[in-house]
Amino acid sequence: MKKQILILGAGFGGLWAALSATRLLSLHGCHDVEVSVLAPQPELRIRPRFYEPNAHQLFAPLGELFDAVGVNFISGTAERIDVEPKTVAYRDALGAIKTLTYDKLVLATGSRLALPDTPGVAQHAFDVDQIEQAMRLEQHLQRLVDLPESKARNTVVVAGGGFTGIETATEMPARLRAVLGENAEIEVIIVDRGSKIGASLGTEISQSIAQACEALSVKWRLQTTVVAVDEHGVTLSDGQRIEANTVIWTTGVRASSLTAQIPGERDAFGRLHVDANLQVIGQPDIFATGDVAYAATDDLGNHALMTCQHAIVLGRHAGHNVAAQILGEQPIMYRQPKYVTCLDLGGWGAVYTEGWDRHVVLTGQEAKALKTQINTVWIYPPAANREAAWAAADPMIPIVV
Q1: What topology does CATH give the domain 3-113+253-338?
Q2: How remote is the C-alpha of 147 from its chain's centroid?
Q3: DSSP letter assigned to residue 303
Q4: Has keyword Signal (predicted)?
Q5: pTM greater than 0.70
Q6: pLDDT at position 400, please?
């Protein structure tokens, strides 16, 4: 009977783990190990782009790619991991509960936006965390033109001034004018607890964010939070009221809840602590990658963030190392010392930085061209060609960005 490597999740971490694992097994001529991916659908959802329009198109099918490299795809959603018997219970496409066994497990189930219990958020706020939620927002924006003209109709409140909040807010003026007309008086407001614009991202990059927001007329309400949402707007922690028909929530991302089912230490975001080979500490047969892994990128105290930039490289290493463990080969230590940021800033352009202190290298349209290249080419999966896919999955290839 073949040994089983089971990968939970088909996001960036899961996809690249599958490609890397099958690559190493093929290099060793190993045919008695099966690599399976369990996920709701055989597609990579391009989550970093969900703030854009046409969210329903922001995915890449994986069926032919998996067939090309010999990955067994299983359609379903993992619900329970039992470490001792090495089983995973999942719900299939028809709703039936089934069970899979594994010899080695790679957890790559990503992260989700955890909406707070703030009154009205669940009922009245939108988000761009998943394709379905992004489509719901898009449909809402398209319907605004049918409402009577008012300040609330033309106002968008974005809760949270982090990466997602900034990219979403700076995209909104163009999206609203595409619906309401070029001459519509639009108001987009970011509500953030920070003391300065983009403060959480660093001093240097925040200057570019401030310039872009000024050019786009995106406003900030600083040192405050949204404490209530209703169908007509929001109430802030300082008592102010903003009338708005559109409220977008962007704060509170946490690792998949499945991490809680694996004994081990977790960080504040629920990510499992892993060693340099991405093996969950204390679990010899379980690896974690992507947004569920708390992994050191270097020896200076930096750790991978919940970004595709890190998930792709984490996936390559996790897949290689889980296969290496079965083969009795030496693992390849995960290290990713180069860290960059490319933040989209709507019609103003973008800002590209290097280093953990986010030193600004490119801004405006020059950075926008790079951001477009990243978003439309570099983060997409390789073609359904075995040799090309395996070449791209080598954990030792140079990191482009």
Answers
A1: FAD/NAD(P)-binding domain (3.50.50)
A2: 33
A3: B
A4: no
A5: yes
A6: 57
